[in-house]
């Protein structure tokens, strides 16, 4: 039985966060490995051979591939503890780190001087809205920390949705789990600290 494994955490540096494509790719890969393929991961935990081979089972086509079967509680717990929760924790750590980067000053922002110049020009500008009603419009360039903060906020909402969907499938197949994924994840964190 080959169990899925969580995506290793990237080296957390501000450059990683500011490369939004790289950040998105990491999150996408981690989600596709565990959450997007949760049904396959759970099916891999079912061990039909343990019950013994029933020759009559080949007389009727089996369409569920174990989808309705309860999974051995030990296999479920091992999957949740070693794969699912560690994957979620890695993504949480990355998003928390990048959120911190987004709220910190960014002295290395390549567009900082350009934005400061635009802001100074904007303050000096005289606008006569009677002549040009659109002249008062000014669209300042967004700082990369603001862009990163928006990305992190959006990705956290995506995480909420994905984790709720994944947890409903895990609860259905494994049973005996807390009703909400946050409770289960917090319980796992507490157990790890002991």
Description of the structure:
It is a single chain. By secondary structure, the protein is an all-alpha fold. The chain has a domain at 14-43 and 70-104 and 112-119 and 140-193. The protein has helices at residues 14-18, 20-33, 38-43, 73-102, 112-124, 144-174, 181-193. Helix 4 packs antiparallel against helix 6 (144-174). The longest helix is centred in the C-terminal third of the chain and has 31 residues, at 144-174. The chain is elongated, with a radius of gyration of 25 Å. It starts with 13 loop residues before the first helix and ends with a helix.
Structural class: mainly alpha
Q: Percent range for helical residues?
A: 55-70%
The succession of helices and strands, N to C, reads HHHHHHH
Mean pLDDT across the residues is 77
Q: How many strands in all?
A: 0
Rg, alpha carbons: 25 Å
- Largest sheet descriptor: none
Distance between the termini: 29 Å
Low-pLDDT stretches = none
Region (Disordered): 49-72
Biased composition (Polar residues): 55-64
Family: Belongs to the MIX23 family.
InterPro entries: MIX23, MIX23_fungal
Descriptive labels:
194 residues; 7 helices; 0% strand; mainly alpha
Short structural summary:
This protein has helices at residues 14-18, 20-33, 38-43, 73-102, 112-124, 144-174, 181-193. It is mostly helical and 194 residues long. The protein has a domain at 14-43 and 70-104 and 112-119 and 140-193.
């Amino acid at each position: 039985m080959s169990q899925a494994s969580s995506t290793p955490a990237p080296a957390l540096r501000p450059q990683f966060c500011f490369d939004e494509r790289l950040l998105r790719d990491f999150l996408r890969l981690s989600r596709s490995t565990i959450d997007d393929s949760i049904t396959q991961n759970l099916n891999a935990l079912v061990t039909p051979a343990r019950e013994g081979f029933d020759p009559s089972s080949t007389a009727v086509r089996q369409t569920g591939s174990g989808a309705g079967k309860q999974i051995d509680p030990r296999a479920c717990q091992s999957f949740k503890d070693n794969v699912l929760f560690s994957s979620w924790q890695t993504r949480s750590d990355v998003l928390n780190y990048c959120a911190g980067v987004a709220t910190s000053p960014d002295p290395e922002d390549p567009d900082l001087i350009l934005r400061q110049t635009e802001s100074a020009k904007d303050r000096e500008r005289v606008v006569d809205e009677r002549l040009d009603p659109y002249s008062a419009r000014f669209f300042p360039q967004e700082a990369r920390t603001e862009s990163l903060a928006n990305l992190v906020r959006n990705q956290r909402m995506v995480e909420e949705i994905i984790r709720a969907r994944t947890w409903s499938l895990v609860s259905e197949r494994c049973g005996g789990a807390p009703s909400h994924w946050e409770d289960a994840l917090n319980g796992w964190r507490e157990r790890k600290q002991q």
